Amino acid sequence: MKINTSGAGISRIVQLGETLKELSLKNGKEYLPLNRGVNQVVNIDLREVVKSIDFNSPDIQVYPHGAGRPALREAINEEFFQGKSSIDNILVTAGGMHALDMVAQTVNIRKLYLPVYYWGCYLKMLTVRQVESAPYERQEDLLGMIDELQGCAVLISDPSNPLGDKHDDEEQLAIIRALNDAGVVIYYDCPYRRLWADASDDYYVRLMQLENVIITESFSKSVGLSGQRLGFIHTTNRELYHELEVRIMYNTNGINGFAQELVLRLLTTPEGKKAVRDFKERTVRDIALNIQYLKERGFLAEEFYRGTDPRGIFVIVNKSEEELLAHYIGAVSLSFFTRTLQDYAKAFSRICVSVPHDKLVTYFDTL
Questions:
Q1: pLDDT tens digits, 13-31
Q2: Which of 69, 118, 293, 303 could form a disulfide with 114 if both were Cys (CB 3.0 to 4.6 A apart)?
Q3: What is the DSSP string of 250-294?
Q4: Do 152 and 110 meet the contact criterion of CB atoms below 8 Å apart?
Q5: Nearest Cα to 356, choosing from 76, 40, 78?
Q6: pTM for this model (two decimals)
Q7: pLDDT 10s digits, 155-195
């Protein structure tokens, strides 16, 4: 039979995870899987949250609303947009990656500009969708590229994957406004921001006023629900919204009803809010301790944080993937996350710092 091949390969991160399992079985050593992109400090405790869920409810057992349950979209409006947007601007998706894919296949652009260090799956997704890409080095460089960016889109992730670099909000917003006013489309994909922020954060409220900004979000990182695959898209463009609604319907026939019910309760019930609060407090604490430890020990690659702060669930360390593996630490070479600086990036690795502090120290002390 003839196959329409995408040209994209399986994720290097997934392959590395399998390698670590094989090595552990072979030599009987436990490896610290810092190659993974999930919060590993502690799982969110859902025991009290699920007690009151009626698993026989039609909200779980029948096809869900095409754009997502209205109650969940209203809860997202309250939590992320301080109630100032509308459920008619929000579409529920099967995770953040699905949200990005829907946008990538729907918005008509010449190419998407990615940071020079980008999440590898961005490029693989664009390859599948046959969308061209180009790099930009720093966010401030975008202001001088406005003529070049006409007819294109720019992706901004903050804190980013892989660097975990957090930019100043006001400086970033000024850049986004300039791009928006020049007619450049912005994909704002920041699933790590809400790990440190809550409903009092008004940054999305300020972004939603810009007609060319499309926000994609995920509950994988901020509430530790990678396995439930739930996210959302926010856009005020009516034509885009309606086309996305059609594509999501025929792509999924509705998003998982249980995942929607679960996230709705996390956002709106006392027991759900407590579970989120406890998860964030413990996770953020150990991330901060881990970054501070890496700084003090000289492992943090400070050159990647000029004018930014290391604040995401990832950071870059000045050890190669091979060096870390020799000390039973799983990491991903930074060269995997760039097309233009691969030779330089081979000396560095991206690691996930969302792991128990004492465990990270135990392994890195051997270095």
A1: 777 888 888 888 888 999 9
A2: 118
A3: HHHSS--HHHHHHHHHHHHSHHHHHHHHHHHHHHHHHHHHHHHHH
A4: yes
A5: 40
A6: 0.95
A7: 999 999 999 999 999 999 999 999 999 999 999 999 999 99
Domains of the chain plus CATH, in order, are 12-44+272-364 (3.90.1150.10), 54-270 (3.40.640.10)
Among 10-19, 74-83, 356-365, name the one with the lowest average pLDDT. Answer: 10-19
Q: At what angle do helices 96-106 and 120-129 cross, to 10 degrees?
A: 40
Q: What does the H/E/C string look like for the chain?
A: CCCCCCCCCCCHHHHHHHHHHHHHHHHCCCCEECCCCCCCCCCCCCHHHHCCCCCCCHHHHCCCCCCCCHHHHHHHHHHHHCCCCCHHHEEEECCHHHHHHHHHHHCCCCEEEEECCCCHHHHHHHHHHCCEEEEECCHHHHHHHCCCCCCCEEEECCCCCCCCEECCHHHHHHHHHHHHHCCCEEEEECCCHHHHCCCCCCHHHHHHCCCCEEEEEEHHHHCCCHHHCCEEEECCCHHHHHHHHHHHHHHHCCCCHHHHHHHHHHHHCHHHHHHHHHHHHHHHHHHHHHHHHHHHCCCECHHHCCCCEECCCEEEECCCHHHHHHCCEECEEHHHHCCCCHHHHCCCEEEECCCCHHHHHHHHCCC
Given the DSSP bridges, would you call strands 111-115 and 32-33 parallel, antiparallel or unpaired? unpaired
Structure tokens at 130: 């046959």
